[in-house]
Amino acid sequence: MKILVTGVTGQLGFDTVRALRRRGVEIIGATRAEMPLDDPVRTKSFVLETRPDAVIHCAAYTAVDRAEDEKELCRTVNVESTRAIADACEGIDARLVYISTDYVFPGTGANFYETGDETAPCNTYGASKLAGENAVRDAMKSGRFFIIRTSWVFGVHGRNFIRTILGLAKTRDALTVVDDQIGSPTYTADLAELLADMADSEKYGVYHATNEGVCSWAELAAEAIRLRGLPTKVTPVSSEMYPTKAVRPKNSRLSKSSLDRGGFRRLPDWKDAVNRYLAELEAAGD
Q1: Which residues contact 266 (CB under 8 A, 6 or more apart)?
Q2: Residues annotated as part of the active site
Q3: What CATH number labels 2-159+185-212+253-268?
Q4: 212 by DSSP, 3-state: which?
Q5: What does the pLDDT look like over 237-266, one tens digit per residue?
Q6: Alpha helices for the chain (secondary structure H)
Q7: What does pTM read for this prediction?
């Protein structure tokens, strides 16, 4: 089996390549230079030329605040190039695994969002990822696709919230972190194994995939600092204390019942994931 992975220099793409390599899969790792997502025509051509059996589309425009000022670029990358990839996959009879986000939901209330719940993004980034989902559905009449909504990703290869917090904690006695945004952290090493399973299956559909359990950003920060043995104190504050250009959802809880229905294994608890992630960072000398 030959699998094309986009975004191999990012956290999820990097770990997905590692997961597939352990399984002995032939991998085409697409970089930005080879597959520029700001150019849908070249993006589609790359898929048609390489003719993979499946595409795991990890790459995306993810600068949430900047997207409010770069709406056209965000749409080109997240919607038009996704449509181009989906068109190509349909044409060569390849499966597509598309990575989406909790941001497709309004982010209100306290319930766990099911895959079929009403979507209503609260910012440009979320709207672009939802439009990307719809582009996949429209282009792939064969139904040979997976849409995976995830949240709060962190991995060893790249920047993320945990890395930022630990960097700050090395030089500060106290940090203030928002505690009214609730969701589930997702270790890309865990998610990558699931994506590899899906790419080798025919259990197509929409899935939610994060590590188990929920927390606030403040709780995530405190747990990472505790595990590193740092004395920094985390003070919870409201989102209003840290206004951002893009609105953030306060409820990012995603139900994983879709994984149960599809026969896929749920990811481990988020605290276990953070512990393993920090061990991986330490082993890498970070």
Answers
A1: 212, 256, 259, 260
A2: 125
A3: 3.40.50.720
A4: strand
A5: 999 998 999 999 999 999 999 999 999 999
A6: 11-22, 40-50, 71-75, 81-92, 124-139, 161-169, 188-199, 217-227, 257-262, 270-283
A7: 0.97
